[in-house]
Amino acid sequence: MTIEPEIRITKYKNTRFYAVWVNEELLAVVCYKKGALAIKQALLNSLNINTLKTSFVEP
Q: Vertex 10, ends 3 and 5: CA angle to 5°?
């Protein structure tokens, strides 16, 4: 049984930067949303968790 980590993507206000959070811990800051989504998908793939739905949180 695997517990799925909570991976969130948030956008910094008035900037083009996106943050990737894993269980309330900052993992990465990237310039583009596509890069943030790629990081999230890579993490999920490494854990063998397939999700069709990606959560994106607007500030």
A: 5
